[in-house]
Structures are given as C-alpha cells and as structure tokens.
C-alpha cells in the first residue's frame, strides 16, 4: 500500500502544494495517506494522471493490482497510463528477456517511444518480476484503449473505440459530448489547455535544438 500511496502523492497535485520543485514534500510524501479500506476496488481512481506522469501512472497500476487485484480501480490506473503513453504497455507485453536495458538520451516528446524505453530501463523489473500483472495487462489490453470522459464528475467510459472527441487544443482530453467539454472548459481546462500546448511547444523547440524529436 505504501507503493501505491507514493505514486498517488506524486500524481496528485494536493500532495505537492507549496513545493516549488513540483514534488511531494520530503520527496516521498505521505506513504500512509490511504489505508487499503479507504479506496474502493469497484470505483475508478480520482487522482488523475497528469500529462507527463505516464511512468508513475503505470507504477500506480501495478501497485494497485498487487493490492486489490484485477478490479475497476486498478484498470482505471492502467487506462490512464495507456492514454499518457501507449508504447509502455506494448513494451511490457513483450518477452521480459527483451526489455530495454540502455537509456535513450535523445530529445523526445512526452508519450513517446523513447520515454517508454527509459521507463522500462528503470521500472521494467517490477513487471518482469510479476507475471500475474503482465497477464492481467494482456487480458485487458483492448479495454484500456477505450477512453474515459474528462468532463467534471463524469468519468464515463466509451462504449466503442474512438467514440469520444479529443480536445482540439492540447490533444490530451477526451469528452463524451459537448456538455462535458463545455463544462470542463469553463471550470478548469481553459487555463490548463494553454499550459499543455505551451509545454509541448517548448519540448518541440528543445528537440529542434538537439537535432530532432523522438516520437
């Protein structure tokens, strides 16, 4: 449970308040923030998975699986991880003997294959040592490709693939309809959308300076 709390502290903005380094206070945050009974296995996670938190979101998925098993809560972490970086899931499903062992230092975008490579270098052993977790990922591989509505208080999962509309600005948020998209825009996404577009532009600029971007 401490491992899951660690991931939540890094992903949840509330765990990083008043810390300019954008990390939980003390680096670890509160490892005892939640007890096992505090979180419902039948409900999706509500802490998000911010743009750029792909690796930590996959870590939360395997930590949740080891605590709660195959359930909606674990699946929601895995789905959010896939949304942030689909390449990681593909690498996990490979033969563990072929997992990357050398970091990729080339410029890259968040959600890229290079980012996935580095995640497997540093965190692949968790999946390698848990064949049950890998089998779980394999059985729900199609389910995690379905998008979750990012509208405030919605979280509904699409009934068929590619049913939901993607935000035309940041290319990160999905909505089940115009009502949810409008509500999210008014309540919080208007400011965040601009920040995420600016972040992506900065990464592309660094990539050009470094000789190109890895997708």
From TrEMBL:
Record-annotated membrane-spanning stretches: none
Gene3D superfamilies, sorted: 6.10.140.2220
Keywords: Metal-binding, Zinc, Zinc-finger
Keyword Manganese found: no
InterPro entries registered for this protein in UniProt: Znf_MYND
SUPFAM superfamilies recorded: HIT/MYND zinc finger-like
Domain MYND-type residue range list: 151-193
Protein origin, superkingdom: Eukaryota
Matching PROSITE patterns: ZF_MYND_2
Name assigned to this protein: MYND-type domain-containing protein
Origin species: Discina gigas
């Amino acid at each position: 449970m401490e491992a899951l709390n660690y991931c939540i502290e890094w992903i949840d903005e509330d765990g990083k308040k008043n810390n300019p380094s954008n990390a939980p206070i003390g680096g670890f945050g509160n490892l005892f923030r939640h007890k096992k009974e505090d979180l419902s296995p039948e409900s999706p996670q509500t802490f998000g998975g911010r743009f750029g938190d792909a690796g930590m979101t996959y870590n939360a998925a395997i930590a949740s699986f080891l605590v709660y098993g195959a359930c909606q809560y674990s699946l929601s972490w895995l789905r959010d991880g896939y949304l942030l970086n689909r390449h990681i899931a593909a690498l996990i499903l490979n033969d563990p003997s072929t997992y990357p062992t050398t970091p990729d230092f080339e410029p890259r975008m968040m959600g890229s294959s290079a980012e996935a490579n580095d995640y497997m270098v540093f965190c692949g052993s968790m999946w390698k040592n848990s064949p049950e977790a890998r089998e779980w990922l394999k059985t729900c591989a199609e389910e995690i490709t379905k998008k979750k509505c990012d509208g405030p208080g919605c979280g509904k999962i699409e009934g068929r693939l590619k049913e939901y509309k993607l935000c035309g600005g940041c290319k990160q948020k999905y909505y089940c309809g115009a009502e949810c998209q409008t509500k999210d825009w008014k309540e919080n996404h208007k400011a965040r959308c601009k920040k995420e577009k600016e972040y992506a532009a900065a990464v592309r600029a660094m990539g050009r300076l470094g000789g190109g971007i890895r997708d």
